[in-house]
């Protein structure tokens, strides 16, 4: 198999993953070493750099990243192991050819929102300025993020995500697990994750407020 990328591309991808991991780590978005991140190197045939299983994303280095193919297998000998969830990254790249990076985090608010709205199969967000971060510019725009069950069988979970994803909306939520979000490059994917997380915080606090909850000062300041 011949891949159309070189060593410089791999270094750029590894550094890009380290940079985005640092940004997310500062926000506490990798509890208990969870989460995984990838950047595409080649579409045909598919290859992408991905964080290795079990590595501490809060202290990620370029040595914690391996390159895998469309079957989530390392393309060269390495002691690093791709996480089982790497299959989901591959599924996103296959279903959304324009995706250049895919980022997965388990956060408190994406878990809460995924559970509260699970029965509807999606969560709707409307009229929030940060929807523009997804490159959707119409006034009072509405978006719906699909939510899938958190199957323990990862190939089944990957297929389900592939089936429900809406190419116009760069994310899928997994119930009580986390978000997968993607973008044309790692900068866009990072912007999308940040926008979704902010909107999930907003929605949860708004729902709590509407139901008479007293919003703690530290959360109200987010
Ligand atoms: Zn996960």
Automatic annotation (TrEMBL):
Keyword Transcription regulation: no
Keyword terms of this UniProt record: Amino-acid biosynthesis, Lyase, Metal-binding, Methionine biosynthesis, Zinc
Domain of life: Bacteria
Residue ranges occupied by any Class II aldolase/adducin N-terminal domain in the UniProt entry: 15-204
GO CC entries: cytoplasm
SMART domains cross-referenced by the UniProt entry: Aldolase_II (SM01007)
Record GO terms (molecular function): methylthioribulose 1-phosphate dehydratase activity; zinc ion binding
Assigned EC number: 4.2.1.109
Keyword Lyase: yes
GO biological process: L-methionine salvage from methylthioadenosine
InterPro entries: Aldolase_II/adducin_N, Aldolase_II/adducin_N_sf, MethylthioRu-1-P_deHdtase_MtnB
Cofactor: Zn(2+)
Catalysed reaction equations from the record: 5-(methylsulfanyl)-D-ribulose 1-phosphate = 5-methylsulfanyl-2,3-dioxopentyl phosphate + H2O
Cofactor note: Binds 1 zinc ion per subunit.
Functional note: Catalyzes the dehydration of methylthioribulose-1-phosphate (MTRu-1-P) into 2,3-diketo-5-methylthiopentyl-1-phosphate (DK-MTP-1-P).
PANTHER family hit by this protein: METHYLTHIORIBULOSE-1-PHOSPHATE DEHYDRATASE
Name of the molecule in the record: Methylthioribulose-1-phosphate dehydratase
